[in-house]
Amino acid sequence: MRQKDRSTREILGWVWRGYLHRHLAVLCAAITLMILNGGTAGITAYLVKPVFDDVLVRGDRLAMYGVAAVVGVVFFVKALSGFGQRFLTNVVGQKVGAAMQRDMLAHMLSLDSAWFHGNSPGALIERLRGDTTSVQHVWNALISKVGRDIVALVSLFGVMLSINWTWALIAMAGGPLLILPLTHFNRQVRRKTRAARGAAGLL
């Protein structure tokens, strides 16, 4: 396990040093939009309280207009930040994938003919195309989904603490119970993905 973790860190470090650090400004902009997009989940959840207390219970019409305006602004910011984040991450992913394909192709062309006899054309195409595509998918998922969901979870937990800290702690205690099955499913998906890519290389 330690060897696997070290190899993963080495691969991530290699991708960062060789490709991602060239797009640092775009990455910072994408991360900023990601934080903004994830934070809107907490703001939306917090707006439920004035909707019930001021609008539904008290019947305050001015509060209804105010809450409706705030909700509209929040959803506009969420849509705009989500689009900008996905656009920037896709741009970086495409540029990184193209750079990796150029470097891999240049390295393959520098090898001798014996190496090409030992590797089928399908396997070479899969390595050249599949590896770079996998890096793009992992990168997009890391920023677009994992990072955004973590920010949304933190913001929602902050709202829960501000409303009722007891139930917030109870909900947090049940969080680790969800990690184990997710880890198991993640391993299964990675195993199936490796098998599918190996089969694609044999075609």
TL;DR of this structure?
By secondary structure, the protein is an all-alpha fold. Helix content is 90%, strand content 0%.
List the helices and strands and how they pair.
Elements lengths: L1 H17 L5 H23 L1 H10 L3 H49 L3 H5 L3 H43 L1 H9 L2 H27 L1
Give an overview in words:
The protein is mostly helical and 203 residues long. It has one domain: ABC transporter transmembrane region fold, CATH 1.20.1560. Helix content is 90%, strand content 0%. The protein has 8 helices and no strands. Helix 2 (24-46) runs antiparallel to helix 4 (61-109), helix 3 runs antiparallel to helix 4 (61-109) and helix 6 (121-163) runs antiparallel to helix 7. It is elongated and about 80 Å long. The two termini are 32 Å apart.
Task: Please tag this protein with its features.
203 residues; mainly alpha; ABC transporter transmembrane region fold; 8 helices; elongated
Q: Treating each run of at least 4 consecutive H or I residues as one helix, how many helices? A: 8
- According to CATH, what is the class? Mainly Alpha
CATH architecture: Up-down Bundle
Structural class by secondary-structure content: mainly alpha
Let me know the number of strands.
0
Residue-averaged pLDDT, rounded? 79
Return the string of H and E elements.
HHHHHHHH
CATH superfamily, by name, is: ABC transporter type 1, transmembrane domain
Strand content: under 5%
Low-confidence residue ranges: none
> What is the CA-based Rg, rounded?
23 Å
Helical amount:
over 70%
The profile of the biggest β sheet is:
none
Q: Ends: how far apart? A: 32 Å
> What number of structural domains do the residues give?
1
- The CATH topology corresponds to ABC transporter transmembrane region fold
- The shape is elongated
